[in-house]
Amino acid sequence: MIAALDQAPELDVRTRALPSDIDPLERLPAAAPLAWVREGEGIAAWGEAARITLPPEADAAGTDRFTRAAAALEGVWTRTRVSDEVGLPGTGALAFGSFTFDPRSGGSVLVVPRVVCGRRAGKSWVTTVADRGAEHPADPLDAPVPPAAPVGPLTWRQGALAAEEWERTVAEAVARIRGGALEKAVMARDVVAEAARPIDVRTLLRRLARDYPDCYTFSVAGMVGATPELLLRREGDEVHSVVLAGTRPRGATPEEDARLAHELAASAKDAEEHRLAIESLRRTLAPLSAGVDAPDGPELVRLPNVQHLASPAAARLLPGVSTLRVVAALHPTAAVGGTPTPAAVELIAELEGMDRGRYAGPVGWVDSEGNGEWGIALRCAHVEGARARLFAGCGIVAGSEPAAELAEAEAKLRVMRAALTDPPG
């Protein structure tokens, strides 16, 4: 393990193809699992060959944790030998990462795992990471894996703010916005679940991957969730992103579902929220790329619990632009921070009454070739032992109503509430 600027270890990385298909999540041991999967494809990993930790920053707009992380990771890669017979994004040497929302919060981390198993484009593989001169395990996937344990009974309690307090916070944010201090702020709330024994993260991952296959199910250093929001996917010099802003719950009947979808599409408040998010993405990627391709209007994306306005975007990066530099530039998006960003981040710090930690921060992976996938840590919980802290946020603009925003937050919290709840019987 290394701190951000300590001496990097010398590693030997080997990736070999597997003769048969695998489900990466089914191979995970219980201890500190790492994962990034969607629609049955992705990577899952365990063990630690290196850990890069980043200290908090003094500046609310700082990006030093990303810069230092990229430099430290490059130091690891320059001392790493790679043998890769598969040659896909996510093979060879890679690291999982999870960064704080606010630069002033501690806890940003990158982990280079010991074993990675993956599936992509009809191919499955396993990667092992050994210290230089040490033996690689003969077949790490042959080791027996204990079954994932149920969560058991839970005790629920309020987080930083009770529901009524949070509504008053939203009302204050609306007043500030109407007063011209800013255009939008994303206000989040948390709730806490306590189990009788340590929570088996694998149980949550399998439930989330089953119930939300279109989302990116992730686990990095205790942050576990299924995010619908792709911050960026990079392959070579091409990056793709998806902006989600504007939300309604799913209806109990097809008729109610259609009504809510029409309401979302016709909502001036949600259209404004989405416009601000798209404009923010364009401004951010413009100096890093040869141009940004995004649609003129959003499309509707339906998830099991909510429906969103969504816009895909693509760009070709300029030479020499690193993946973590793009991540740093994109974070925080208007969809999780607000507009203008500096004012929104300060308002969040003033009114929310909590430290978000790595909630709404970038989460994902990057390999030694620069390929990677990074999402925003939404619909998630921070799991530590028997405790899970759940988060959800809503975009607040001048037309927001506190009661409606609370209902939206509750709809988003249902994702992790359900993942933590064992089925009856």
Automatic annotation (TrEMBL):
Signal peptide: none annotated. It is an enzyme of class 5 (isomerase). Its EC number is 5.4.4.2. It catalyses: chorismate = isochorismate. It comes from the Bacteria. InterPro entries: ADC_synthase (IPR005801), Chorismate_C (IPR015890), IsoChor_synthase (IPR004561). Residues 163-412 form the Chorismate-utilising enzyme C-terminal domain. One of its GO terms (molecular function) is isochorismate synthase activity. Keywords: Isomerase. The keyword Isomerase applies. Belongs to the isochorismate synthase family. This is isochorismate synthase. It comes from Streptomonospora nanhaiensis.
